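Entry 14. Ran structure prediction on the chain below.
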Amino acid sequence: MRVDLFDFELPDDLIAQRPVVPRDSARLLDVAADGLHDRSVRDLPALLQRGDLLVFNDTKVIPARLKGVRPGSSGGNGRQDVAVEALLIRDLGASHWLCFARPAKRLRRGDSISFAEGLAAKVTAKHEDGSIVLAFERSGNAFLAALERTGSVPLPPYIRGGTADAQDRSDYQTLFARHDGSVAAPTAGLHFTPALMAALAEAGIATAGVTLHVGAGTFQPVRVDDTDAHTMHAEWGEVSAATADAITATHAAGGRVVSIGTTSLRLLETVARLHDGDVKPWSGETDIFITPGFRFRAVDLLLTNFHLPRSTLFMLVAAFAGLERMKQVYAHAVGERYRFYSYGDCCLLRR
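Output, structure tokens:
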């Protein structure tokens, strides 16, 4: 499909720079069969049914933005010290990370980069898309501990230019964060509070978790003219036996699976596609790219924030609820001044 079909106008002042407090006071646009209804996230228990199952992404955002220096050389080539900023994208194992770096053009394979707190890495590969591979000298818990001390929250550039502060350490983390590995938050989960979870349980709505470590590629605009020419970055995910059983039991009892965010949906639909429509225990990498015409098998409802124009995520919601419908939804959201993107408001979509 032509990428320009997924474009829309968005005033810059609707891009949320901080989340609302408390989180569950965010606005929720209920996209129902009888029209669009302006509600609050706190209304969610009343919008769902007893026996429904919410599926959250329990990944944890790591402080994946690092600043360091590639030392110069005293040899004949006269290379100078270069300030380097690296954004970790994906854990490749054995202390190797796929990264975006600036200035990537001034880095060569074999270069060493020194970060704060004695954290150091070597460039082991450069790719055509501008990404590089860094091999860090530390691994496991020692690496994560150094990252906590030296790294910063990898805010997207549309939030205060990507400059994070101490408040973002908690703001950009969901209530469900358990497993280190994401470089971007599964943002629909940011709206949930203990009070809302208690209200959902009282309404007879169950919950389950999956893990998808979100990479920076998921949130980048598509820079080609046709969706067939776009390549998705792979992300690692896992669906446990307990969650797979809960989804199967929910559908068998006539309940609905409600994906909290596009990351949970992408993982569940990956697994369902691999197992002829069933959700089974699974772990591995997914690079699924969902566009209109996709056959959904696992998810019945989707709670999601408002996304970038021409992004893979807007394409996903257009596939889920219909492109023309989603254009109407976004036009309403702009007109009613909903807050957009990671720290913004959300909508509830039905297939």
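The two ends are 21 Å apart (CA to CA). Will compare against last week's run tomorrow.
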